[in-house]
Amino acid sequence: MNNDRKRSYIEDQSPDPNKKPHRSNPQHQLQSNRLPVFASYLEVPNLPPQTKQLCEIVSNTPSLTIERVLNEASIRVSQEIVEEVLKLSYAYPGAAVKFFRWSASQLNGRHSPYAWNLVVDFLGKNTLFDAMWDAIRSMKREGLLSLATFASVFSSYAVHGRVHDAIRAFEVMEQYGCRQDIVALNSLLSAICRDGTAVDAVDFLRVVKVRIRPDADSYAILLEGLENEGNVVGSRQTFAEMVAEIGWDPCNVPAYDSFLSTLLKVRGGIHEVLNSFKMLSDRRCYPGIKFFKLALEECLKNNDVRGAELIWESMVGGVQFKPDAQMYNSMITLHCYSNNTDEAIKLLDEMVYSGVFPDVHTYNVLFQFLIKARKLREASVLFKEMVKNEFVPSQDNCHAAVRIYIGTGDPDMAIKVWKCMFENYHLNLADTGNILVHGLCDMDMLPEAVKYAEGMIEKGIKLTSTSLSKLKQSFTKAGKVSMYDEFMTKKAAH
């Protein structure tokens, strides 16, 4: 099963009979203590004029008069138009049902299964459960019922906190001609985990598995639900049950991903994660990219180089994942914090070779620690590469670099960094500029000191009395006191 389970909210409330039920991204979950917010036609750009007019009628006309208004509008509909109007009319269930019935005459009573499923869905989402079951019975007579219909029912009950009713709907499926198989069970578990609580889904699976054998997807659904709720104890128990029921399966990536990601949420959980990760990798079973990112971030938080290297080697060597920039950044930062800038540089070279391009964070972290470690030759090479790739060091990094390059007798690099800083930042430049001017004077580079001092003056950056005194000493030493007076006259003019 694909580990990328994102889908839009309109899919959530638009059950398509041709789509296999699957899990949603947690960002789009509906919680049982919060009513769903329905899509509106007003939010849809470039809506066809006929569809927009019908949506306006449904949303603004009382149910008692809607059929008359629709007749007077003289709009011809197709199955596709009906479906689109129903999708955008969830907030008006009474009027939407009247529209659905009215449009049947134009379609010779042949609504699409999708339109019927939409009716079932918006009735359920609005807690009109008696009407929802009436629609289901009508669909049965038409031979239009499918698993998508019951997936909608499961979701509607779960989102309103009626998990037991969702389970009862599952139990009567076969009376309506729908198979009560593992696909249906997983659809129910998905709805409960998404819209209810994962514990309820776990409890029901323990009861029902005597007659319907769970598969890898069943446990992946439960473990994802438990992860979303941060239920570490439940996740451990469910994982153990999964191994006992279906064994180890290298293809069951979503389950391993959710299980290990849940363990990471425990304080100090990285140690248990590393033990569990080794247990998995010994069986050639690996989690997905989500876990690897979270684990590297956790190792970084705990300054755990050894753990990060174990995870990195398994990810790159064992699973042969291609890390992205964020993951490389985590490893580079971790090695920098551990004073291992040589390994960080190797990773920078590796990411470029692998076609993953460094970003401003990558460069800044490495530049910061190279400067801090006084590895100035490497820092200079990195700075030039950074600027060539149109990235700018942070202002703090620029300040530190100018100070250290001046302090170690490398005025050329100090000037290059100052120029970069001067061009890209406009506030809080005085401290760095004065360090540069003072240092250039100390190195008997008076013309350069004057040049950058004048640049500071033109930009309104204050020269300190110490810098002015140093400049005066340098002019005097060079026998050019009159030039100092000219300099001070220019300063006064600004």
From TrEMBL:
PPR repeats lie at residues 146-180, 324-358, 359-393. The keyword Repeat applies. The keyword Signal does not apply. InterPro entries: PPR_rpt, TPR-like_helical_dom_sf. Residues 1-30 are annotated as: Disordered. Keywords: Repeat. Residues 1-10 have a biased composition (Basic and acidic residues). It comes from the Eukaryota. Gene3D superfamilies: Tetratricopeptide repeat domain. It holds the Pfam family PPR. Belongs to the PPR family. P subfamily. PANTHER family: OS03G0856100 PROTEIN, OS12G0638900 PROTEIN. NCBIfam families: PPR (TIGR00756). This is Pentatricopeptide repeat-containing protein.
